[in-house]
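Subject: design request, 350 residues
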């Protein structure tokens, strides 16, 4: 580890706001140094409780996160907040609506808030959210609250990151059952009916209870249903108590580690997929070649299934050659093209 990285790690662990901001920006930008920093910070992570807050647009997620953070600060617990926002069509950055709503915390050193842009990444999270969570965890935060961008019925990536997932619903959004079916229903560890002073809150609760009788969770936990009016701070202590109740349940049943193992299994597969794809595109086939092959497929001169097999087989052969030759093989664009066009050349005689 270089001296500069070591110094940076120490500043992050001390909760230095500027060091945190710089680290997160570097991760979001995908700069090479970010990997070294994450490697150094990871051993210091794993202590924070990660709470995911998700729900449809307009459910009041930001206000609820803001109020829950206040509640935890009353308990003298430090909080990191990651607010995943839609991407600006002009700057490519986050539309900072959530940061504006939470400005009251700006003078509190026990809370760190970061808005992140999805940058086109589906699933309700930004691509770098997991890594940013690691940074906030390593900085000593007791809790990390992750507010997803407004999600639909199957964008449920938060469940692969959070220890506890809170699904937020509101009355008066048309067919309420439609808002809680399929994946969204299954990922909730705690249900919140926000804006519960509106007409229809009781009906939403009845529908949740009815669906819970049909959905049997592997851990035998029945998610509580908490009613809140976030703008007035009503129901927030009850929500914090419900979250603590599920945390205690996980510890008593020895399920927390199993959940983390499951989450990291998914994350590891995702990291391998991303890294291998980037390496394949960099070393085996470039953007120009992809465009040429796409044209051949569109014109039905090639089929995509055989083509993918050829590219992957060619990549595997290249790896074997590097192992046998001591990783001294020099790769050029011409050799890349020859590597995966070999099967086609044999078939066509070219």
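Subject: RE: design request

Done. Sequence follows.
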């Amino acid at each position: 580890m270089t001296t500069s990285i070591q110094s940076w790690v120490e500043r992050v662990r001390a909760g230095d706001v500027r060091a945190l901001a710089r680290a997160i920006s570097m991760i979001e930008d995908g700069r090479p140094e970010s990997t070294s920093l994450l490697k150094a910070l990871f051993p210091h992570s794993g202590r924070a409780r990660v709470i995911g807050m998700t729900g449809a647009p307009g459910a009041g997620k930001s206000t609820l996160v803001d109020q829950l953070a206040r509640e935890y600060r009353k308990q003298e617990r430090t909080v990191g907040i990651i607010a995943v926002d839609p991407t600006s069509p002009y700057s490519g950055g986050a539309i900072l609506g959530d940061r504006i709503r939470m400005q009251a915390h700006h003078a509190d050193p026990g809370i760190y808030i970061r808005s992140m842009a999805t940058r086109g990444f589906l699933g309700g999270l930004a691509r770098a959210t997991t890594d940013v969570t690691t940074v906030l965890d390593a900085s000593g935060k007791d809790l990390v609250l992750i507010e997803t961008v407004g999600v639909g019925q199957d964008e449920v990536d938060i469940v692969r990151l959070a220890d506890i997932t809170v699904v937020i619903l509101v009355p008066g959004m048309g067919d309420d059952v439609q808002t809680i079916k399929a994946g969204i229903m299954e990922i909730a560890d705690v249900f919140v009916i926000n804006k519960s002073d509106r007409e229809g809150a009781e009906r939403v609760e009845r529908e949740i209870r009815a669906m819970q009788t049909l959905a049997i969770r592997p851990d035998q936990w029945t998610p509580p249903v908490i009613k809140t009016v976030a703008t007035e701070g009503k129901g927030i202590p009850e929500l914090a108590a419900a979250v603590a109740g599920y945390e205690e349940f996980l510890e008593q049943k020895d399920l927390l580690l199993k959940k983390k193992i499951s989450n990291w299994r998914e994350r590891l597969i995702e990291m391998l997929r991303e890294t291998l794809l980037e390496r394949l595109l960099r070393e085996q086939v470039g953007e120009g070649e992809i465009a040429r092959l796409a044209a051949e497929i569109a014109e039905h001169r090639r089929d995509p299934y055989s083509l993918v097999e050829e590219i992957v087989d060619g990549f595997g052969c290249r790896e074997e050659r590097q192992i046998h030759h001591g990783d001294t093989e020099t790769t050029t664009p011409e050799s890349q093209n020859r590597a995966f066009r070999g099967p086609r050349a044999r078939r066509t005689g070219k």
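The chain is about 50% helix and 10% strand.
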